[in-house]
Amino acid sequence: MDPETWHASLAGVVLAAGALIRDSDARVLCVKPNYRDYWTLPGGICEAGEAPHLCCAREVAEEVGLDLPVGRLLTIDWQLALPEYGPDARPSMYFIFDGGVVPATARIVLQDDELDDYQFAQPANLAGLLAPAGLRRTVAALAVSDGQGASYLPYQPG
Questions:
Q1: Helix or strand (DSSP H, E) at 144
Q2: Do 72 and 101 meet the contact criterion of CB atoms below 8 Å apart?
Q3: What is the pLDDT of residues 89-101, one digit of tens each?
Q4: Mean pLDDT, to the nearest integer, of 60-66?
Q5: Phi, psi for 153 (deg, rounded to 5)
Q6: Tens of pLDDT along 101-111?
Q7: Element (H, E) at 61
Q8: Residue 1 pLDDT level (bands cut at 50, 70, 90)
Q9: Which of 4, 14, 71, 117 has the least CB density, counted as fewest CB within 10 Å?
Q10: pTM score, two decimals?
Q11: Cα(97)–Cα(139) distance, integer angstroms
């Protein structure tokens, strides 16, 4: 098999990246997309050929108007595609990077066409905001954020 045909036959995966951004009270920045029923961390889907850390910086700037340095990788979450995406949908990998701590004076400017609101939420209140998969990866990111290393979250049904 020639290299081009072989490469085209490989499984594909959707990449997404987001930032764990906190305020000085250790609350987590969450945004409310207008196309979902739940909140999420600032971030989004990587463009073709875009590295996850660059996607993270781009999406944070686009969604909340913050030009932050992207810190170390905190969590990688691998998930099967949701059933509503159809039988040929690809799995996804979601990267969470450390977005650091923003001062109380930081000006959040929402991306009007995608986001309805934002808030800094106490970690104990994230379960009431985030979808189960988003909560799982955010809790994992928080658990390693003050230490070394990263967490890898293989898919767990249910």
A1: helix 132-145
A2: no
A3: 999 999 999 999 9
A4: 97
A5: -115, 95
A6: 999 789 999 99
A7: helix 52-64
A8: confident
A9: 4
A10: 0.90
A11: 13
